[in-house]
Amino acid sequence: MFGGSFNPIHFGHLLVADDIAETLALDRVLFVPAATPPHKPAAELAPAAHRFEMARLAIAEHPRFEVSDVELRRQGPSYTVDTLEALRGRGDLHLIIGSETFLDLLSWREPRRVAALARLVVVPRTGIAFAPESPAAKKVLSELGLGPFRLSADGGRGGGISGPPLKESTDPVLVAAASLPISGSDLRKRAREGRSLAYRMPAAVAAYIREHGLYRPSA
Predict the structure, then answer these.
(1) What sign for the dihedral angle of Cα 71, 96, 140, 129?
(2) Could you tell me the CATH number of the domain that includes residue 25?
(3) CA pair distance 177, 156, nearest whole angstrom
(4) Cα dist from 121 to 21, 27, 76, whole Å
(5) DSSP structural state of residue 152
(6) Domain for residue 218, yes or no?
(7) Tens of pLDDT along 125-154?
(8) Domain enclosing residue 201, as ranges
């Protein structure tokens, strides 16, 4: 499960998801646009239905990508624990999150339940140092009842995970997945100013933004 506001979805999201799918040999990556993210101001968000449609367009040609409207069909804030509960029948779940989000995980609703429902796959953000042995990281792991991180064998470039097979443990995984320096806030600013979105997102997503006037002052 790869959740987020996807406001808008871009090549950075898609590259990370593809790299993790390959490294962990995942059957599927499920993109879950949040209807009402608890930690983000609603004023900054495009309507949930538009963000879902942009995600659907973006992943359409990838054989292992899928998009879910599970959070759009639910009332109230989009809590990850509720989404994972709803997806329990989908198989062995992995939750893809950034390293900054991981360090903030204890502020989430029922964080221990989140960690029990899905293996945490943590991706360090480009340009921001993340030390898995730091006191802050160890505190989160301890509070969640988790062991130390398993590391990708070659920095997350398709080489798998070191140690015994993942199915034999519940350890969280740290994957230095490939990433691109693309910012959602920059894309929204570009769209608002009528500037180019080319080479930053799939062409179908850029066309959708233009067609519906998303992120423009009147949107």
Answers:
(1) negative
(2) 3.40.50.620
(3) 5
(4) 11, 15, 26
(5) B
(6) no
(7) 876 778 999 999 999 999 999 999 988 754
(8) 2-212
